[in-house]
Amino acid sequence: MSDEATSVPRIVVGVDGSESSKAALRWAVGQGKLTGGVVEAIIAWDFPTAWYGLAPPTDRAPVDYQKEARTMLDQAIDEALGPGPGRPVDLRPVSAHGHPAAVLLDAAAGAQLLVVGNRGHGGFSEALLGSVGQHCVQHAPCPVVVVRGSGRGA
């Protein structure tokens, strides 16, 4: 038997705090429960970008961005699934540095499934599918599920 045949299914889900990402997390947890899989809830973070060749002033260390992203992820998980222990699956929160699409595609290597919300916190709210979701659908190394936001409040 190969390691792949005996390993627990892994589901990767992108979470950015948006309603559609929370809906994607709920869906991924439900799927993980059905398949006996683990769910990796991933938030991506990056350093502030430059404006017109100038970097924004900051006195914050890179560790601050990592910590803030993890705090935001933990809050989104609690809002989507309820606080505390007793979750129906092994849930593994991950805060990773990089562009969201690249982070999710890297994490999806070897995963059974990649789950994304249809819209994140990006710029064009009228778009059917956000740029990160579109990129993941086109380039993922595994099947991708796009979950439409439920409209349910936090």
Description:
The protein has 154 residues and is α/β, with parallel strands linked by helices. Among the domains are: 22-37 and 70-95, no CATH class; 97-118 and 129-147, no CATH class. It has five helices and five strands. It has helices at residues 3-6, 19-35, 62-81, 100-108, 131-139, and strands at residues 10-14, 38-45, 90-97, 113-117, 144-147. Helix 5 links the parallel strand 4 (113-117) and strand 5 (144-147). The termini are far apart.
**Could you give the order of the helices and strands?**
HEHEHEHEHE
Q: What is the radius of gyration? A: 16 Å
Shape estimate = globular
Strand content: 15-25%
Helix and strand composition category: alpha/beta
How far is it from the N-terminal to the C-terminal residue, by CA?
Answer: 44 Å
Number of helices: 5
Proportion in helices: 25-40%
Strand line-up across the major sheet? 3-2-1-4-5
Low-confidence stretches are: 123-127
Number of strands: 5
Q: Please tell me the overall pLDDT.
A: 84
Q: Could you give a short account of the major beta sheet?
A: 5 strands, parallel
Family: Belongs to the universal stress protein A family.
InterPro entries: Rossmann-like_a/b/a_fold (IPR014729), Universal_stress_UspA (IPR006015), UspA (IPR006016)
Protein name: Universal stress protein
Organism: Streptomyces bluensis
